[in-house]
Amino acid sequence: MIQKAKELLLNPWFQLCLTVLLVTTSELFLKRGAVEAPRLPAGVNWTGVSGLASANVWYGILFVIASFISWLYVLRFIPLTIAYPLSNFVHVLIPLSSWFFLDEIISTRRWCGIALVLIGVLIVAKPVARMEEKL
Amino acid sequence: MTLISALLIFVALILYILGQLFLKHAMESDLRSRRFTKFLVAGLVAMTISFFITLGLLQHFDLSYLYPFQGLSVVIISILAAVILREKLTPRLFLGAALISGGVVLVSLS
């Protein structure tokens, strides 16, 4: 059981999925934190530094760091021409989760863009999946 | 858009792309070698500068205006990874990258 879990954790493709999930989670926390952050006077407001007062922003930062570490692990094993396009799955997952969790509205054109990203990701992923089966 | 902001958008994009290439190069080396440390630091520095330039640009432009440039990074990174890091870029991978770039641009236009 522990052996299985360890194998999974060391699998770069699993880590790539993890990167995407961690990035998405971090964005949701950061958005929540940014909204509840106190508004500072206009002169100093632009840096977003007041967001540090929100616990959600700190959760977001932790998830950003975690996603960066798993991304570095991915880079060790998967070519950039495959890993980077696949990591763009966040452009599908973030809009979907902001629609689901944050009640944001997505326009038709945006849905089309999301679909296009999804098709691109699938085109990159398919030969990879076949390659993995052979291994 | 002034010449300077166009230049800043370009520099931020290039630094982000270079950052990814540096990090990839670092992670392919022996983790105790000097090459690893050098390229990891170079990657982190490039990405940090790019981050702060983007933050500055966001004060003057909408996110939806700046985001398409970020979308282009998919195609550019794929090409540069093939040219500089000698990775294999099949027509299929290129098509996928192009569609993703197009999709990101479309998402940010709406």
Question: In summary, what is this structure?
Answer:
By secondary structure, chain A is mainly alpha-helical. Helix content of chain A is 79%, strand content 0%. The longest helix of chain B is centred in the N-terminal third of the chain and has 25 residues, at 3-27.
Rg estimate of chain B, integer Å: 15 Å
**What is the string of helix and strand elements of chain A?**
HHHHHHH
Biggest interface, chains and residue tallies: A-B, 35 and 36 residues
Q: β content of chain A, as a range?
A: under 5%
**Spans of at least 5 consecutive residues with low confidence of chain A:** none
| Helix coverage percent of chain B | over 70%
How far the N terminus sits from the C terminus of chain B, by CA atoms, comes to 20 Å
User: Assembly type of the shown chains?
Assistant: heterodimer
Rg of chain A, nearest Å: 18 Å
Proportion of strand residues of chain B: under 5%
* Number of separate helices of chain B: 5
Topology order of chain B in helix (H) and strand (E) letters: HHHHH
Q: State the end-to-end CA separation of chain A.
A: 22 Å
Average pLDDT reading of chain A: 87
Shape of chain B: flat
Helix residue percentage of chain A: over 70%
Please tally the helical runs of chain A, counting DSSP H or I stretches of 4 or more residues: 7
